[in-house]
Design brief:
This protein has 2 helices and 9 strands, in the order αβββββββββα. The chain is an alpha+beta fold and 188 residues long.
Length: 188
């Protein structure tokens, strides 16, 4: 009887461990976001949550914003910004267009991942609209212009005079079969 009781306890402990590991996996994403926000790492931007407290534009400062676009390994799209950089005053709303082309003979789904450098400036770079918020589906030979609208907060530290907004484009076609099916239905 004691061996059965011992086995039952072992099974309960193992089940608890499995459930705890599963829960920890789900907790990793919010924990990662909190750590990035607290430590100012990974160039994460605040996305659409930014609400400008005032319509203040700091005309006394001019910033240079550089735009970079790269493809992850295995991504065959042509991808890049309309301009390499622009000058702006903190508080102004700006837009940059990125051109993406699918040169293959297959429909593809892509996801762009942004990064802002220097990392301490990421908390002050607010995207109000961005193609990186959703996956992009392009049919064979299709080209699209994808906007990113943003505001650099006037509270940006005075020593930061140059920002870089970089995007890496990933092929997520294999992970998004429902996106391809939906785009095929919409195309017909």
């Amino acid at each position: 009887m004691s061996e059965q009781l011992s086995n039952a306890r072992l099974v309960k402990r193992l089940l608890f461990t499995v459930v705890a590991m599963f829960a920890f996996g789900f907790a990793m994403v919010p924990l990662y976001d909190v750590m990035c926000d607290a430590l100012g790492i990974n160039g994460k931007t605040s996305g659409t949550a930014y609400q400008q407290e005032s319509e203040h534009i700091d005309d006394s400062r001019t910033l240079r914003v550089q735009f970079l676009a790269t493809n992850a390994e295995g991504m065959s799209w042509s991808f890049g910004p309309d301009a390499d950089e622009l000058s702006l005053h903190p508080g102004e709303t700006h837009e940059m267009l990125f051109r993406a082309s699918n040169p293959t003979d297959q429909p593809m789904v892509a996801q762009a991942i942004p990064s802002v450098a220097p990392s301490k400036a990421a908390a002050y770079f607010h995207k109000t609209e961005c193609f990186c918020f959703t996956q992009q589906v392009l049919q064979p030979g299709e080209t699209v212009m994808m906007p990113v609208r943003f505001i650099v907060d006037p509270a940006l530290p005075k020593d930061v005079k140059h920002l870089t907004l970089a995007y890496t484009l990933f092929d997520v076609t294999d992970r998004m079969p429902e996106k391809l099916a939906l785009s095929a239905v919409q195309a017909n």
